Amino acid sequence: MALCIAFFVPFIAAALAVLFTRLFKSWAGWVLALFPAGLAVWFGAQVPAGVRGEVPSLTLPWMPDLGIDFALRLDGLSLLMALLITGLGTLVVIYAGRYLVHHEVLGRFYGWLLLFMGGMLGIVLADNTLLLFICWEVTTFSSFILIGFEHKEDAARESAQRALLITALGGQSLLVGLLLLGDVVGTLSISGTIAAADTVRDSPRYLAILLLVLGGAFTKSAQMPFHTWLPGAMTAPTPVSAYLHSATMVKAGVFLLARLSPVLGGTPPWETILTIVGTMTMVLGALLALGHTDLKLVLAYATVSVLGALVMLLGQGTAASIQAMVTFLTAHALYKGTLFLVAGSVDHETGTRDVAHLSGLRKRLPMTAAASAAASLSMMGLPPLFGFVGKELIYEACLEGPGGWPLAAAATVGFGGMVAAALRVGVQPFAGKTFRAEKPESKVHEAPPSMWVGPALLAAAGLVLGLVPWAIQPLLAMASVDIGGSQAGGLELTLWHGVTPALGLSAGSLVLGGSLFALRQPVLKGLRALNLSSHGPERFYQASLSGLIKLSSSMTRVLQNGSLHQYIVVTLATFGGLLALAVVLRLGEWPRGVSKYVLSHEVVVLVGILVSAVLAVVSRSALTSILALGALGLAEALLYVFFGAPDLAMTQVVVQTLTVILFALVFSRFPVQPHEHRFRWWTAALPLAVGGLITWIILHVASTPSHTRLADFYATQSVPAGKGLNIVNVILVDFRAFDTLGEATVLATSGLGVFLLFRTRSQRKKRQV
Amino acid sequence: MELFLAITVGGLFAAGFYCLMLHSIVRIALGLVLLGSATNLLIFTINGLQRGFAPLVPEGQEALSPPYADPVPQAFILTAIVINFGLLALLLVLVHRAAQETGTDDTRALRTELKDSKQ
Q1: How far apart (Å, rounded) are the C-alpha atoms in residues A396 and A388?
Q2: A655: nearest CA in chain B?
Q3: Window B:30-89, CB contacts with A under 8 Å
Q4: Are B59 and B65 in contact (CB under 8 A)?
Q5: Is the dihedral of CA A434, A439, A442, A443 positive or negative?
Q6: What digits encode the pLDDT tens for the residues A290-347?
Q7: How many angstroms away from the CA of A67 is the closest CA of chain B?
Q8: Chain A residues within 8 A of B103 when measuring between CB atoms
């Protein structure tokens, strides 16, 4: 039950955000942070129970007929992610309260941020694939809003649109994949699916499921070639970048892969695709990071690189690689969150976040500089920080795993790029003797406490965990077991592994990164000349977007050209085509069992109907057509009389009479001569074909006549329940009285319309007088 | 009987659709009336017909015993007839006003006239 409350707390906080921001003004950040802080404490308190092997879970039926339950489960992996989400969330909420203090709609910002937190927490807690998907879409949508938060800027809108298009398309792919998965396993429960993993792997639909799920995970976690939305997402306010676009949301894809790896993992396609895509993303992301001087862009590409590394590790699938994945994910969340918040503070205090214009800030921003230094050392993977622990594990996993030396070499290159990126964003702005910034030195001062407490705490956590890694070891070990099964247990974190090949690779990446940083000017020039990010996926995205717009405008030109005649032809042809399809596929044979018995007076009436219809259509005179219409209505009323429907006959006579009078009234005073027309056979071809198809279908339907059970119900209940002998009347005014009320409403509305139309005319006449 | 009625309904639909394809808005209104009749007869036919035997419970009895005509489609049609009429009344007045404003009942001309009047 507590789990259920935990699930809803962020949503409640989101609902209260605007009110609280009004009430507490500049303290709103601290007050709203109490919600995630409380959650973090609660989740933290669950760790000992989790280590003992208890897995709290909860299942409430939601849509039982569809197999959709409100099912939550808090295993080790969920617990780790939940702690990151709520812990970082607390610090980001506090930070944003100061960072956006003068923003006019801070309350709305908090609302979306907390809604995102709820969605993200839902993803990691859900034990039902569709509940997970719903929360997944909540994060997609709130991310869209937050990226476009400065919606008056073109760039923000463009980036938001791009992020939505890419991640929502991935979401659709994920939905189909999850539904297919549910169909194969027979349950939507995630723990049930994991239990039935062999069924999935043996299923002929395995590959389709894998590719569809990967479509969702890769778009969300910005893997090549879907990574282009993440750098664009940097238009969001910096707290959002720190929270959504480095620490949590972009890891949702990685989380999903980790969650489903017991089901989908361990097969050749899984290993191949994840390893290749992950490695490519890791290396190219690191390379692209070096081509920028904007602090946030460098961090964004470095994040892409890390996400690639995490996916690559999941693809390897060995016990060591899963342990490395879990450890590095945690380390990354800590240092990257710090660096983003630091970048935000630098931007906030100095007015620029272009590293080319920044140096020597450490004297002016001591706390921020200290946090930045610790975090960038962690990013570079230097002891005694937690990043070092994670990086050593990755190198070991690569060397021991199926990827071997080539993969380890690729990782070294990737980390080399990250070292250079860390030096650029975390060290360069603060180092140096001369002070450089947009604002003069005297105007630049340390950020207020609410803006350095977050980065400082995160950086300190990275340092403490590096020194005493056994503190977090049980939690990470639990998460590893949840991903890789019991053979992934036995995680042992130590800061110093001795002199190993992994240490050699670490040194290699440091040398590579150091030299890349030393040669930063030529590297920057070269990469800018290559302009990598505007080729490939970027060009494809632009081309498909403009292609889509061209396609829709040409479709509008063809289909919505304003000609009523053409609309009707298109509608009728489509309708006829669908009917023809139904006839060809299902109703091809000659209808049997249709009554051909007919009485002579009935034939007379039917012929009368057809003749008046033809007359109404072909007559050139409007008056003849109107009279033919009247005759048709009366003949129809006779039919109703013959076949046991006296009420219909009476109504039909009255209404048809009114119709004819109305037509006659309108056209006796019609201001223009009605448009003449000649009957044309080629115009009649399409209507005749559709009419013929309708006849054919009626014959099929009517060949199996049945007295409805509904009819029996009304026949027996009309008198006892409705107190009426005329069953049709009882249906209308008693059993289905609401329909009749609706009908009366339509009639009244139409009457009002008629009245108003006449009135406007009389007013216009008055004006003319 | 269903066979012949089905043919009649098909014919009515054809006539209605034909009218919709014409350019005179008066004829289009006429087509809507034809389509309304066609639809009502379609609902009437598809569940089978019953000669005589209106769904009326004889005085003093509690329930109606077969044979009787199905009351459910009849209730639908009764609603449909009235709604059709409401729709038609509004349409005719609109047509009338449009013709008054623009001096034509040709949908092609109406379109250009309305465009001009907007400018």
Answers
A1: 12
A2: B85
A3: 30, 33-34, 37, 40-42, 44-59, 61-66, 68-72, 74-75, 77-79, 81-89
A4: no
A5: negative
A6: 888 888 888 888 899 999 989 988 888 888 888 888 888 988 888 888 888 888 888 8
A7: 35
A8: 671-672
CA distance A686 to chain B (A): 8
In a domain, B30, yes or no: yes
Cβ count within 10 A of residue B59: 6
Task: Give rounded-to-5 percent helix, strand, coil for chain B.
Answer: 70, 5, 25
Task: Please judge whether A644 and B51 are an interchain contact, meaning their C-beta atoms are less than 8 angstroms apart.
Answer: yes
Domain with B79 in it: 2-52+69-118
Chain B stretch 94-113, residues whose beta carbon is closer than 8 A to a beta carbon of chain A: 94-97, 99-100, 103-108, 111
User: How many residues make up chain A in this entry?
Assistant: 769
B94 found inside a domain: yes
Cα–Cα dist A120/A220, whole Å = 12
Token output for A82: 């939940």
Q: Which two tokens stand for residue A78?
A: 């969920």
Nearest CB to A750; choose among B65, B66, B90: B90
**How far does A596 lie from chain B, in Å, by closest CA?**
5
Query: Alpha carbon of B28 to those of A418, A565, B19, B89, B93: distances in Å?
Result: 71, 10, 5, 13, 14
Give the pLDDT mean for A577-595.
85
* Cis peptide upstream of residue A384 (ω within 30 degrees of 0): yes
Q: Using an 8 Å Cβ cutoff, are A750 and B91 in contact?
A: no
The rounded distance, in Å, linking the Cα atoms of A222 and A234 is 13
Q: Is residue A219 a contact partner of residue A169, using CB atoms and an 8 Å limit? A: yes
DSSP A151: T
- Whether B79 sits inside 8 A of A732 (CB atoms) is yes
CA A217 to chain centre: 12
CB-nearest to B6 from A646, A702, A706 is: A702
CB contact under 8 A, A645 and B51: no
Q: Which residues of A touch B24 (CB under 8 A)?
A: 674-677
Per CB-CB distance under 8 Å, the chain B contacts of A761 are 97, 100
Residue A237 near residue A110 (C-beta atoms within 8 A): no
Residue that is written with structure tokens 């007869």 in the block? B41
Using CB atoms, pick whichever of B20, B52, B90 lies closest to residue A754.
B90
Question: Which pair of structure tokens corresponds to residue A27?
Answer: 């303290």
Query: Is B39 part of a structural domain of the chain?
Result: yes
Report the 10 Å Cβ neighbour count for A404.
11
How many domains are there within chain B?
1
CB contact under 8 A, A746 and B83: yes
Residue A595 backbone phi and psi in degrees, to 5 = -65, 125
> Given the DSSP bridges, would you call strands A68-73 and A57-63 parallel, antiparallel or unpaired?
antiparallel
Residue A769's pLDDT band (boundaries 50, 70, 90)?
Answer: very low
Q: Pick from A684, A711, A757: which is nearest to B94 by CB?
A: A757
A753 in helix, strand or coil? helix
Give A552-575 as a 3 state SS string. Answer: HHHHHHHHCCCCHHHHHHHHHHHH
B90 interaction partners in chain A (CB closer than 8 Å): 750, 753-754, 757
Token pair for B21: 């394809």
Is B55–A598 a contact, with Cβ atoms under 8 angstroms apart? no
pLDDT in tens, A427-444: 888 887 777 777 777 777
The number of C-beta contacts closer than 8 angstroms across A and B is 307
pTM: 0.74
Domain contains B92: yes
| CATH assignment of the domain containing B96 | 1.10.287
Alpha helix segments (H runs only) across A128-248: 129-147, 154-185, 190-195, 197-202, 206-220, 229-232, 238-242
pLDDT in tens, A657-702: 999 998 888 877 776 666 666 777 778 889 999 999 999 998 888 8
